[in-house]
């Protein structure tokens, strides 16, 4: 093998390594950028961090979960927007995304949502009252 052939082989090997690294960095950058997207407006599931507490209806004890479809307007057996008096099971949130340099994050609890100026609580849904 001549010196020129060796040099061409090294350059080819380095090129493929660089191309692979650039591809990896490119895909990673897209995934990294997705983390900074503002959350979607809509209904979010609410669960209770510690349901054994005497009053699990305390906002700091209400954990906000995943985006869900809107609960029905009325349902006496499940989570519904009207007529139920039990514990909160879903909350409707909207996010102020007007400032591209100050994007909201999804709050972890209802209390965080209430205290965040970029988050508005537009509605809530509740379970039927538990019978004792």
Question: If you had to describe this structure to a student in words, what would you say it looks like?
Answer:
The structure is a single chain. The protein is an alpha+beta fold. Helices cover 29% and strands 23% of the residues. The longest helix has 32 residues, at 3-34. It is elongated, with a radius of gyration of 25 Å.
> Structural class of the secondary elements?
alpha+beta
Number of helices: 2
Q: What fraction, in percent, of the residue positions are helical? A: 25-40%
Mean pLDDT: 84
The rounded Rg comes to 25 Å
Poorly predicted ranges: none
Write down the overall geometry.
elongated
The string of secondary-structure elements, in order, is HEEEHE
Spatial ordering of strands, largest sheet: 2-1-3-4
The biggest sheet, with number of strands, parallel, antiparallel or mixed sense and barrel status, is: 4 strands, antiparallel
Strand content: 15-25%
Q: Ends: how far apart?
A: 88 Å
Number of strands: 4
Q: Which helices and strands, and how do they pair?
A:
Layout: H1 3-34, E1 42-48, E2 62-68, E3 88-95, H2 110-115, E4 119-126
Antiparallel strand pairs: 1-2, 1-3, 3-4
Task: State the main characteristics.
23% strand; elongated; alpha+beta; four-stranded antiparallel β-sheet; single chain; 132 residues; 29% helix
Tell me briefly what this model is.
The chain has 132 residues and is an alpha+beta fold. Helix content is 29%, strand content 23%. The protein is elongated, with a radius of gyration of 25 Å.
